[in-house]
Amino acid sequence: MYKLLFAGLASFVLAGCSDQSWRTTDIGDIMPPLDFTLTNEEGETVHGEDYRGKATLVYFGYTFCPDVCPITLSRLGDTIRDLDDETRDNIQVLFISVDPSRDTPEVLKRYTDAFGPEFIGLSGEQAEIDAVTNRYRIAYEYGEENENGDYLVTHSSAVFAFDREGQAQFLMRDSHPVSDAEADIKRLASQGG
C-alpha cells in the first residue's frame, strides 16, 4: 500500500514539475524583462511596457532577409492561426529590425502585415537597436555591400517569449522540434492574465 501511495505521490510531484517547465529553453531566470525604446510602424516612439498585457514573442531580423526571417515568421504565423480566437487575441509578435537604414516604419508595416495582424514591426536609431540587442545578448553583423548597395545581415534566429507582465519565459531555436515550439506558444498565450 505504501508503495502505491508513494508511486502516486511521485507521479503527482513529477506532473507538477513538468507543468512549470517549457519544452523549449527556459530563460526565466537568466533573461531580463521586456524593456526597450524603439519606433513602431506608425513612426511613434514605443517602450517595452507598451506591450504588456499580452504574451509576447520577440524576433530580431530584417525585411531583406532572404531565408531565415520569412521562414521563422511564417512558422510563428501558422502556429498563431491555429489558436482559438480568444487565445490568439492574447498574443503578439514583435519583429525588431536590426537594419534601420532600410527598414523604415512603412517597410516594416508592409512586411509584418504579410504574416498576420499579431505581428508588429519595430526599429529605431542604431544606439536604440544596440541597447536592446545587447540586453538580450543578440549578435548581428552587416555584410559587404554589392554593386547595387545590397547587403546581408548575419543575425540570431532565436525567438524570445515573454509573459503578459513582460517577464522572460522561454527561447525557441531552429533546433527545437516544431511541435515543442507550438506547444509552448499555445501554453504561453492561453495563460491567464
TrEMBL record:
<dbReference type="InterPro" id="IPR013766">
    <property type="entry name" value="Thioredoxin_domain"/>
</dbReference>
<keyword id="KW-0186">Copper</keyword>
<feature type="disulfide bond" description="Redox-active">
    <location>
        <begin position="65"/>
        <end position="69"/>
    </location>
</feature>
<dbReference type="InterPro" id="IPR003782">
    <property type="entry name" value="SCO1/SenC"/>
</dbReference>
<dbReference type="InterPro" id="IPR036249">
    <property type="entry name" value="Thioredoxin-like_sf"/>
</dbReference>
<keyword id="KW-1015">Disulfide bond</keyword>
<dbReference type="Pfam" id="PF02630">
    <property type="entry name" value="SCO1-SenC"/>
</dbReference>
<feature type="binding site">
    <location>
        <position position="65"/>
    </location>
    <ligand>
        <name>Cu cation</name>
    </ligand>
</feature>
<protein>
    <submittedName>
        <fullName>Protein SCO1/2</fullName>
    </submittedName>
</protein>
<keyword id="KW-0479">Metal-binding</keyword>
<dbReference type="GO" id="GO:0046872">
    <property type="term" value="F:metal ion binding"/>
</dbReference>
<feature type="binding site">
    <location>
        <position position="69"/>
    </location>
    <ligand>
        <name>Cu cation</name>
    </ligand>
</feature>
<feature type="binding site">
    <location>
        <position position="155"/>
    </location>
    <ligand>
        <name>Cu cation</name>
    </ligand>
</feature>
<feature type="domain" description="Thioredoxin">
    <location>
        <begin position="25"/>
        <end position="190"/>
    </location>
</feature>
<comment type="similarity">
    <text>Belongs to the SCO1/2 family.</text>
</comment>
